[in-house]
Specification:
This protein has 623 residues and is α+β, with helices and mostly antiparallel strands. Helix content is 53%, strand content 16%. Strands 2-1-4-9-6-7 form a six-stranded antiparallel β-sheet, with no helix packed on it. It has a five-stranded mixed β-sheet with strand order 12-14-15-17-16. Strand 16 (605-609) and strand 17 (615-621) form a beta hairpin. The longest helix has 78 residues, at 360-437.
């Protein structure tokens, strides 16, 4: 998951760099405006005739702050004599509702051309995203252009540039806005996918913010007017107000929920909650035709949460360094940028750059990028934390299961040992009592009883020895020390030392040698022989066979089934397994288990070979 986030971050950074590169102008377009001045028309009653005689014009440079007043402004553009070619008067941004451009015709009369978001796009003279009209001034003659603007937005900018520069600007704007809207759609889809996978509400809020950003950019930049609703009048300007208000409310809701992720004090979210509560008021104002007041309230709310965010960011405590850097960088940069462009909308100060014509484009782009990174990082940490908890739970369950199994095995083992020791101890007790009662018993009888006592002691010793051997094996204390052994001689020795050696029949291939641990191999063969002699038919022989080749040596122990019956092949090598019919004889159920484990250590195999008449075990060695 971490790799996916890193790749996503790289892709988004590349998109950001590409967007910034396209946003930069290829060259500075020549502007023919020598002087700009404006005059407010609070009553909206001044005509073009009145405005020519009006006094109180104020000069300005760059964008003109309208400060969401909603009152008409008159702008006077004094244009220097244009060179040959087509020149246009361009007015930005696309939020301006009603624009009237007044130019003198060749006959001296004033001609008016109407533009703005409240007018149909298809009625425009030039099919560009920005508002523009051809300059009517003949080449070599200075001209004065009056522009009347009525809008509820905050900023307006006026230029006279060549038609070619205007077309190039329009192309770059299309590419820029296309990348921007494509980016917002991609981020929205990622957020929806994150919500679908995790079910976290924050991902859905982020997707809603991305969608309203897409709609707002399409409205502000004129995409919807040109491609979706070219004939609409008075619809898009209202839609812009609604989109801005809803977008701001969703941003406040998103920021509030992001703060709650990091368990900040409750008061840190109050400003965001209050700004969310402004949405019904803004919608009511827009519905009553007071869009300027709604936008002024919107800008005031943004200024408030910007100042508030600059304070709150220092109260956020985040353990993860990456997430902490992302969050604080996002908060500080966003606050600085919003203050930079919001202050001119509130107070009359000079705007330093034309970037403030579309101030929400960079801020929303940065917000989409950073919120996606922050939420993705938080989701990654939550996933890691959940995975760690699940692993810990799994480890705890395994440990509990292991302890229960060990407890069960210990109880079973103790029960088994007590049961198996009871018979030889009873035999010892009875024999001892007989000897005590009859100390003058015949020597023959005394010898028989002493032999029984010795067998009982041997059984106890065998049980304890086998338990110790298995414990050494499971503790990892058993090591293999291999050397070359004569297998025929080794097996013959094992047969001679068996308790009932007379019952063993040998079929040993002479000359067979193997590189094995002789001590362990003797113990393994003795275990197999002991089982065959004890549980097999007491009147039938036990066969010990050796067959060797260049690649393997097979040791086979074969006996006829006896009183214990046939063993269960599926459980033969399990710990503590004893056939139900074998309980008449003392044992631990550890012999074959030990043989199988030691065979694995020696890189050998031991198996039960199905046979209709005999119980057969085969031990395979690699010479």
């Amino acid at each position: 998951m971490a790799g996916c986030i890193v790749r996503l971050a790289r892709w988004l950074c590349c998109a950001l760099l590409a967007w910034i590169g396209l946003a930069l102008p290829a060259h500075a377009a020549q502007d023919l405006v020598q002087q700009r001045s404006y005059l407010e028309d609070p009553g909206g009653a001044l005509s073009i005739t009145d405005i020519q005689r009006a006094q109180g014009w104020q000069s300005f440079t760059g964008p003109l702050p309208l400060r969401n007043k909603g009152t008409p402004f008159w702008v006077r553009l004094q244009v220097q004599p244009p060179p040959a070619g087509d020149w246009v008067v361009r007015v930005q941004p696309g939020l301006l509702q009603d624009i009237q451009v007044f130019q003198r015709t060749a006959h001296g009369a004033w001609e008016v051309q109407r533009l703005g978001s409240s007018h149909a796009y298809q009625a425009r003279e030039r099919v560009e995203l920005a508002f523009s009209v051809l300059l009517h001034s003949p080449p070599g003659e200075a001209a004065t252009v009056f522009v009347r603007v009525r809008s509820d937005s905050a900023i307006a900018h006026f230029k006279v540039i060549s038609a070619q520069d205007s077309q190039e600007f329009d192309i770059r704007t299309h590419v820029l806005v296309g990348l921007y809207t494509g980016f917002s759609v991609v981020v929205m889809c990622i957020s929806l996918l994150g919500w679908r996978v995790t079910g976290q509400r924050l991902w859905l809020l982020n997707a809603g913010f991305d969608f309203t950003t897409f709609v707002m950019v399409g409205l502000q930049m004129g995409l919807f007017a040109k491609y979706l609703l070219p004939a609409s009048q008075g619809v898009l300007d209202q839609a812009i107000f609604y989109a801005n208000s809803i977008h701001f409310a969703l941003a406040c809701l998103l920021f509030r929920e992001m703060l709650r992720l990091f368990h900040v004090p409750a008061w840190c979210t109050w400003a965001y909650t209050a700004c969310i509560g402004l949405l019904p008021v803004q919608l009511l104002l827009i519905g009553l035709g007071h869009g300027a007041k709604a936008m002024a309230l919107n800008n005031l709310g943004m200024l408030c949460i910007s100042l508030w965010g600059g304070v709150v960011v220092w109260f956020v405590s985040i353990e993860d360094r990456t997430l902490r850097v992302l969050f604080k960088t996002f908060g500080i940069c966003l606050v600085a940028y919003l203050l930079w462009w919001l202050l001119p909308a509130i107070v009359p100060v000079t705007i330093p750059s034309t970037l403030s014509l579309y101030p929400t484009l960079p801020s929303n782009f940065f917000t989409m990028l950073m919120t996606l990174a922050i939420i993705a990082r938080h989701t990654q940490l939550e996933f890691q934390r959940q995975t760690a908890l699940e692993q810990q739970k799994h480890a705890t369950d395994l440990a509990l299961h292991y302890e229960k199994q060990r407890h069960a095995e210990t109880s079973s083992f103790l029960g088994m040992v007590l049961h198996e020791l009871k018979n030889p101890l009873s035999l010892l007790r009875v024999a001892t009592q007989h000897l005590q009662r009859d100390p003058q018993a015949p020597a023959e009888d005394r010898a028989a009883r002493l032999a029984k006592m010795q067998r009982a002691v041997d059984n106890i010793d065998a049980i304890l020895e086998r338990c110790v051997a298995v414990d050494h094996l499971e503790q990892g204390a058993l090591t293999v020390q291999a050397r070359t052994e004569d297998l025929a001689a080794l097996l013959a020795e094992c047969a001679e030392q068996a308790p009932q050696a007379e019952r063993i029949r040998l079929a040993l291939q002479p000359g067979a040698r193997a590189h094995v641990d002789g001590v362990l191999l003797r113990l393994m063969v003795r275990n197999l022989l002991d089982n065959a002699l004890r549980y097999g038919d007491q009147n039938a022989p036990v066969t010990l066979q050796l067959e060797a080749s260049a690649t393997t040596a097979r040791i086979t122990v074969r006996n006829a089934p006896g009183r214990g019956g046939w063993p269960d092949p599926g459980q033969l090598f399990q710990k503590y397994y004893r056939a139900p019919g074998a309980l008449f004889c003392s044992g631990t159920g550890l012999g074959l288990y030990w043989v199988a484990q030691v065979a694995r250590l020696m890189h050998a195999t031991v198996r039960h070979v199905p046979d209709p008449h005999h119980v057969v075990f085969e031990l395979c060695l690699n010479p």
